[in-house]
Write a structure and sequence with these properties.
A four-stranded parallel beta sheet has the order 1-6-2-5, sandwiched between helices. A two-stranded antiparallel ribbon has the order 3-4. The chain is 28% helix and 12% strand. It is globular and about 55 Å long. Strand 3 and strand 4 form a beta hairpin. The protein is α/β, with parallel strands linked by helices.
């Protein structure tokens, strides 16, 4: 039996998803534009459309009402990087070898950006990828505070101070599979995976904060760090506020890409929008998120 090449299987999966979301409406183009949105660290129990009456997610609920709401589905892998690698490549973990976080995805594996780019799509990726190695380059420790600056040094969380890129490679040894660390890799800051435009949650986001006069935020915020008000596991909210939250930055970048390509033919654009953790952005919203007061709002309200 002849096996279909993996890039054809991936394209078939993607087209099947598009057909499902198209419903019974007549197609305007045989090549639809694609906008794929994925939130980070948001369980299904935190979406109103899945029965939670305490947390308000009106825009997600609208998408569910106007599209298809899946109630029986499986994920390819649980951790961040392996799950994203499977979605982008159409392969299971044991075929793409991204076994855990910080493992760099093999650039020779065909993924969504490359496949649709070769088919004539203009492609953009906005948000966290975590497929190019460590997301937190420039750290000297794992506490999320020290970005290679000594006390009293002029804060410069971007530019030359961001260095020490590294990644893991999954290799086979005589005693089994193991992870081998290498220096280098694109981190979150370089275009990869075949996408034309790329904005990540580290240097690009920190640059944006500094451009908006938020040097203090730029020193502590990025990727999973959204300047939380309390340690992990406790009642918390993001102290960035909605105007400087990563969701704001990524939304602006995504909107700009869509507007730039809006006058071009249908079926010519692929946009992947991976949002940051959906933590509340004010104390009142954080309180509402945990105790159920009807004051919260969706991060997609923009």
């Amino acid at each position: 039996m002849t096996k279909c090449p993996v890039h054809y299987r991936l394209l078939s999966i993607l087209l099947l998803v598009l057909v499902l979301f198209a419903g019974c409406r007549p197609a305007k183009s045989s090549r639809p534009n694609i906008l794929l949105i994925m939130t980070d660290q948001q369980p299904v129990s935190c979406v109103g459309a899945y029965g939670n009456s305490q947390i308000k997610t009106p825009y997600l609920d609208q998408l569910a009402e106007e599209g298809h709401l899946m109630r029986n589905f499986y994920i390819a892998a649980f951790p961040c990087s392996p799950s994203r690698a499977s979605l982008l490549s159409g392969r299971y973990l044991h075929h793409h070898n991204v076994s855990t976080n910080n493992v760099r995805m093999d650039p020779s594996i065909p993924v969504m950006g490359q496949i649709l780019g070769a088919a004539g799509y203009r492609t953009g990726y906005f948000g966290k990828a975590h497929l190019g190695g460590s997301m937190y380059v420039g750290r000297t420790g794992g506490d999320g505070i020290d970005y290679l600056h000594t006390p009293g040094e002029t804060p410069d969380p971007v530019g030359d101070a961001i260095r020490d890129y590294w990644y893991h490679e999954r290799i086979e040894t005589d005693s089994g599979w193991s992870s081998q660390r290498h220096e280098g890799g694109p981190g979150e800051d370089q275009a990869q995976l075949g996408f034309d435009q790329w904005k990540g949650g580290w240097k690009h986001y920190k640059d944006w904060l500094i451009q908006h006069g938020q040097e203090a935020f730029a020193r502590v915020a990025g990727n999973h760090d959204d300047f939380q008000s309390a340690p992990e596991g406790e009642h918390m909210f993001s102290q960035l506020g909605p105007e400087y939250h990563m969701a704001h930055f990524f939304t602006d970048q995504t909107e700009a890409f869509i507007q730039e390509n809006s006058k071009k033919p249908l079926g010519s654009s692929l946009v992947l929008f991976w949002t940051s953790p959906p933590g509340s952005t004010t104390e009142a919203m954080g309180h509402s998120f945990f105790v159920g007061r009807n004051k919260s709002s969706s991060q997609f309200s923009r």
